What does this fold into?
Amino acid sequence: MHPRGWNTHTSHQRKLQSYQIEANFYRNYACLCDDHCAVPKLLAEFSENPQQILVLQDLDQAGFSQRKDEVGMADVISGIKWLAYFHARFLQKDSRDLWPIGTYWYLATRQDEFKVMGSGRLKEAAQALDTALNRASFQTLVHGDAKLANFCFSDSDDSSRFAAVDFQYVGKGVGVKDLAYFLGACLNQDDLFKHEHLLLDEYFMQLKEALEHYQVKVDFTHLQQQWRQLYSFAWADFHRFLSGWSPDHYKINSYMQKQTDIALAHL
It folds into this structure.
């Protein structure tokens, strides 16, 4: 039973497809990730109809044995670095065997939730927000579910070592979709207000260094300008999903509302 009651044929088919997408990621993309954006490597795979079995690297043995429900600022910055390097690694790369649009709350796949949203400006603007994000000229791969439960922390004193799992919703998108979701998963509204500028600056600083590391040629000034503007759109897009899926969700707070208002004002 789904905790929010969303047991439908659509959700079941989306889940089945997500497993195939995840297999494609580990098969074709995980090998391109280095220590800056560590993921488990695919060691073997085989099928036992109708099951497909993947054998993945043990991240605990690889030095990422820690799991955390709460994090400090050093951990948040480590996560931001992982995201920045992952986004830089796959910037403008072809990914036709993954989701055409990454994230599990993508509007086209969440019509059940959209239909039950209360009427208002956010619902009216949902398609425009979706279009602005998906038609941005700079696209990368986004993890699509960058919450704390999907990150593994180093078992050493080096807090910068970080690894990620669960690539069921990986696909095309602007990097700030992952960033907004990750920050919302780590910080309460007071800390989001307090540290917003510092953390956004950290992300783009890390992104610039990562692009240089991977020798990706891009107009970084234009990229940064575009993605900074879309940061509020990413928040509003996730707000749209939560408003239909779980309108009383704790993540719908004053910071999310402020970012939604900013995005709606720019439409």
About this structure: The chain has one domain: 9-266. The CA atoms of residues 105 and 241 lie 6 Å apart. The longest strand covers residues 42-48.
